[in-house]
Amino acid sequence: MDAVVFDLDGVLVDSETVWDEVRRAFATAHGGTWTPAATRAMQGMSTPEWGAYLVEEVGVRLSPEDAAAGVIAEMDRRYEAGPPVLPHAVDVVRAVAARWPVAIASSSPPSLIEAFLRATDLTGVVPVVVSSEAAGAGKPAPDVYLLACAGLGVEPTRSAAVEDSTNGLRAALAAGMAVYAVPNPHFPPAPEVLAEVTVLHGIEDLPGALGVPRS
To answer: Matching InterPro entries, A to Z (predicted)?
Structure first.
């Protein structure tokens, strides 16, 4: 194995419920009607994709660009006091990065990824950060993972990905990577997708699964 690529939301930051809460409230405030399928449908989408989804499927009465900007502004506000970093996440990234190059491949906008790196002092530890805004398509398309691997100068088939959601797992599998799942307890991945990957109990189990010696 040549590199490890981490998802952000749900893997390193406990933010999936925050995204859901913010989008629901924003949709309601702007004429939309939330549907049971909306939460899972938008997990992994790039910003332009979920902005369009809020307008076309949920019925938000704004342009896709304005809908996305409004949601991101509220997420930025929520992160001002620090992102909700998951236990063990920072130590795991540092442990893995001591052995292999690491990257983040996330559907979050760049401002939230940077907020996480600043809050955790991981900016110098994670040399490659890719938002699906720059990848052209969100998950489950493999684009964001392919771009992250290209940034590290490694082949996807010789790299591992760490994910929590159905769409994220499908994206990493489509990229041809070895995939490790830390299932999101709030939005559990589809069983048929979990059957194709290595399932961990928690992020703290990743170093052992990758063969990183205990310090």
So the answer is: HAD-like_sf (IPR036412), HAD-SF_hydro_IA (IPR006439), HAD_sf (IPR023214), PGP-like_dom2 (IPR023198)
**Which of helix, strand or coil describes residue 42?**
helix
Cα dist from 30 to 69, 125, 181, 182, 212, whole Å:
13, 40, 35, 34, 49
Query: Tokens in use for 192?
Result: 């048929």
pTM of the model: 0.91
Measured distance CA(25)–CA(28) in Å, rounded: 5
Confidence band for 213, pLDDT divided at 50, 70 and 90: confident
Q: Would you say 174 and 140 are in contact if contact means Cβ atoms under 8 Å apart?
A: yes
Instruction: Give CA–CA dist 76/44, Å, rounded.
Output: 18
Q: What is the pLDDT of residue 16?
A: 86
For Cα atoms 86, 140, 145, give the angle at the middle one, nearest 5 degrees: 70
Reported as a single tens digit per residue, the pLDDT across 103-153 is 999 999 999 999 999 999 999 999 999 999 888 889 999 999 999 999 999
For residue 4, give every residue at least 6 positions away whose Cβ sits within 8 Å of its Cβ, in sequence order, or none.
96, 100, 101, 102, 103, 159, 160, 161, 162, 210
